[in-house]
Design goal:
- This protein is mostly helical and 283 residues long.
- It is built from 8 helices and 2 strands.
- A two-stranded antiparallel ribbon has the order 1-2.
- The longest helix has 25 residues.
- It is elongated.
- The two termini are 52 Å apart.
- The mean pLDDT is 81.
Length: 283
Amino acid sequence: MPSKPYSDGGERLKWPTWAYNWDVVSKPPTDLQNAYMRYTNEFDNLLPEQVVWEVYGPRDNFGCEEFRLNPQCDAERNLWYMECPMICMWVVEHYIPQRVMRQFGLYQATPPDYQDTDEALHRLDRLKSKKTDWGKIHQKHVARFLLCVREAKKSKRMAAKPHCEDAFSEYLHWFLENTRVKLLPDAYPEDILEEPLPAWDELRNLEYNQDVREGRQTSFAPVMNFVRTEVQKQADELEGALEFPRDEEGNNKLRDFVRKQAQKLRRFANLLGCRDPESVLHV
């Protein structure tokens, strides 16, 4: 939506903050009952290529040409990269920019430095601790924060390597292997098309199959991700089959491979139609 007119009187310090852009957003006319499912599907179906990694613009051009950002917003850029605890009364959250260096246009290490986010801090209850001296309780976190600020001000500007696409691809591979990245559970087990197959009675009781049979709305992201993964897996296996030697033994291996792939694809199609994967369709 377009930004509404803003009068700054010619003073730079009266320019709007970035959040001002969102001041014109109206409440969407949506069915709240179905909104959560739609949003989780959107997130789970998101591909890295669809993400704007530097959402505020390039590193040396914070913001965008059409929007004059208040200079106070980036007056302390040297503090953006501090790996420090952020403290507000009883609440302490660790700020860990080393996990999102791509957002700053910088080199992303793999894996990023580990930071213990201290789950015990999340169990603190302000209501049960009204007379608690939080400054004393969180003394070590306060000291750590002050130390980080002093170090950041000394360095003025972080000397870091610029973004490298190959390094970031390596990081994404590591991230997907070591982190939970889906909000919704998988539609099927990863090896469901391999031998031995689960019993059909077991498969028909899966949540996705039950929803389809009973006419309820289903989440498409888990199924889409399953299809995407299986198609990629089949493509990799097909490329591997081309390396069979061109002799009688290789031809026999190729025929056996094609037969097994056809069987898996039939199971694949039946599974998506909530049918017994071993049933054979005759047209």
